[in-house]
Design a protein that fits this description.
Elements: H1 2-27, H2 31-34, H3 44-59, H4 67-90, E1 106-107, E2 110-111, H5 117-134, H6 142-161, H7 177-194, H8 209-236, H9 243-326, E3 345-352, E4 360-366, E5 371-379, H10 384-400, H11 407-425, E6 431-439, E7 444-450, E8 456-459, E9 464-467, E10 488-491, E11 497-501, E12 508-509, E13 515-516, H12 518-527, H13 533-548, E14 557-564, H14 570-592
Antiparallel strand pairs: 1-2, 3-14, 4-5, 5-6, 6-7, 7-10, 8-9, 8-11, 11-14, 12-13
EC number: 3.1.3.16
Region (Disordered): 574-597
Coiled coil: 273-322
């Protein structure tokens, strides 16, 4: 707001000065145009240009202000100034100023009532500055243009102050003192209108040390230089003093004034520095106290976290032990009375949790004298939540495994129970799984798959590996309660191996980010088709580790193998068939043997 007022007052003073000059020319009062009779007066064209530009500055923020009108006035001023410069450099008179002052008086070797070429140049510069002021995007150009006009005008004013006006006594029209004063007023109006956000006022604003030094030193240096020049010109030279003494006195005065300014600035800046130092020391002390308090809190918090981590580690260790206790510690023999080494079905397992506890679970349990149930599942994610769901899966398996030995119906019952538990808990979890019922007497197995990676059937008697066919495949366990799983039947020959696994075994990335896929796993198993089962599992694990260049897995890994050692009752059936053949041949032999004589 203060800059707006300054701009308005300076523009108004410029307009008044131009109007007074025009009145002086019309009325014949030359003093209104020149301040003193011995000074050259301001030209009427100059006064008209100042009046037009001041009118633009005064009406710039008026609600009814029209920019095209202002631009037209600026163009008029530029045409007048440009015409004067054309006359000066070409020597051709356009006759424009003769309309205003047809028969001017002489001021030395030049005519009065004519615009100076320096004035014309200043009008061009300040017109560009006013035009830039009207356009927001070009406003930053107004400062440099105005500063140049102010510099030229100050040189003219200094010439008048020192009694040697610029270009007086020559053939070039000099700049009148009122003209220079009007340029200074108009330049001040433009700089104030630009505001503190643009150069040159931008560096003066604020409480920074730089701004304080500028506000004190720059005006002081200018005033001292002016005072020293005026003192030397108007006083010391009139006293007929020795030149050395006059120079010493002026220098002493300069030193005294500068010393006073420096002392005042040092007091202000020193006070700021002392206050800043005091505040810095107080802030440093507060920061040190805060650091000590923070260190104490961190130490206490660290101890608390260490204790809780220790407790959590112990609880996780206990949970791991309990989870491992839920897994089979030995596998059943088939038939149940047979020694383990003579079991018709042999079992192999690999169990590697990614953390303390796992989301993978498997179980092997007898269902009849010659039949065994095999269940493997992989709960979404891994960690404590997944481990809790595996405990639910074991409970549901134990609850329903004695009632129905059909894999599809058994999986349907487990899915319904798991969905009810998760829905009541208000959480979204799921598990994939495979249920297998293997019968060593029939040489076959039944299975059902719930969104789980398809198991591998290693048909060693045929020399090939296949995926189990996924007839009637359904979704994962726990997502929907009305899912019905289908049972599929397949045969196993002696030496065949059924390999069940979780996806943590093959969803492994190498250093380039490439995935060890299920097809890669199939190929690795098929290449080791005739390996002993335990050696096969370890060899496949070694290949996966070699692919990832890591000794661990990102996800839980569980592998379960069921190998058909022999088919129960096959030898008895074969011996029975041979006996029947012998009985059929016996009567023929008796007829062929002659009776003794």
């Amino acid at each position: 707001m203060i800059y707006r007022r300054i701009s308005f007052v300076c523009a108004l003073m410029t307009g008044v000065l131009g109007a007074l000059t025009l009145i002086g020319w019309v009325s014949g009062l030359a003093v209104l145009a020149s301040i003193r009779q011995s000074y050259i007066p301001m030209a009427p064209s100059t006064a008209l240009a100042f009046t037009l530009l001041s009118l633009v500055l005064l009406l710039r923020e008026h609600p009814k202000f029209r920019r095209p009108v202002a631009e037209l006035l600026i163009v008029v001023v530029c045409l007048v100034a440009g015409g004067k410069l054309f006359e000066f450099f070409s020597g051709i008179s356009l006759g424009v100023e003769e309309w205003l002052v047809a028969d001017p008086a002489m001021f030395g070797a030049v005519r009065t009532g004519r615009m100076s070429p320096i004035t014309a140049l200043n009008f061009l510069l300040i017109s560009v500055a006013v035009l830039a002021l009207l356009k927001v995007r070009l406003r930053f150009w107004a400062g440099p243009m105005t500063a140049l006009v102010l510099a030229v005008s100050c040189v003219v004013v200094l010439g008048y102050l020192h009694g040697t006006p610029l270009l007086y006594g020559g053939t070039v029209i000099p700049v009148a003192l009122p003209t220079a004063a009007a340029f200074i007023l108009m330049g001040s109006s433009i700089i104030a209108a630009i505001g503190a956000e643009c150069w040159p006022l931008r560096g003066w604003q604020g409480d920074s040390t730089r701004a304080v030094l500028l506000r004190w030193f720059l005006p002081a240096v200018v005033l001292v230089a002016l005072a020293e020049g005026l003192l030397r010109t108007h006083f010391l030279t009139g006293w007929t003093l020795n030149p050395a003494l006059a120079s010493a006195l002026s220098t002493l005065l300069y030193i005294l004034i500068i010393s006073a300014v420096i002392s005042q600035v040092a007091r202000l800046v020193g006070r700021r520095i002392d206050r800043a130092e005091s505040e810095r020391n107080a802030a440093q002390a507060a920061l040190e106290a805060l650091n000590r308090e923070l260190e104490q809190r961190i130490a206490e918090r660290t101890r608390e976290l260490s204790a809780k981590n220790q407790q959590m580690e112990e609880e996780l260790t206990m949970a791991r032990e309990l989870q491992l206790a839920l897994l089979p510690d030995h596998f059943p023999s088939v038939p149940q009375s047979a020694p383990v080494a003579e079991s018709a079905l042999k079992f192999f397992s690999v169990y590697q949790p990614a953390g303390k506890v796992s989301g993978d679970f498997f179980s092997v349990f007898p269902v009849s004298e010659t039949g065994v149930g095999i269940f493997i599942c992989d709960v979404m994610g891994h960690g404590v939540r997944a481990a809790l769901v595996t405990s639910m899966m074991r409970a549901l398996l134990e609850q329903h495994s004695g009632s129905d030995m059909d894999p599809g119906r058994l999986m349907t019952q487990i899915n319904h129970g798991l969905h009810s538990i998760l829905k009541q808990a208000g959480t979204t979890m799921y598990a994939t799984g495979v249920m297998v019922i293997a019968d060593a007497a029939k040489g076959e197995f039944q299975y059902a798959i719930a969104g789980h990676p398809s198991p591998l059937h290693l048909k060693r008697h045929e020399g090939r590996t296949t995926f189990l066919e996924l007839h009637g495949r359904a979704g994962a366990l726990g997502l929907f309660s009305d899912v019905v799983f289908t049972t599929t039947r397949a045969t196993m020959a002696p030496g065949d191996l059924l390999m069940l696994y979780t996806d943590g075994l093959f969803e492994v990335e190498n250093e380039e980010g490439n995935l060890f896929s299920q097809e890669d796993l199939f190929k690795a198993v098929d290449e080791r088709l005739h390996f002993p089962t335990g050696e096969l599992f370890q060899s496949v694990l070694a290949e996966v580790h070699g692919y990832s260049q890591r000794s661990d897995f990102d996800d839980d890994v569980c592998i379960l193998g069921i190998e058909m050692a022999c088919v129960l009752g096959a030898e008895k059936r074969e011996s029975g068939l041979e006996g029947e053949k012998q009985n059929q041949k016996a009567p023929l032999d008796e007829e062929a043997v002659p009776e003794p004589v």
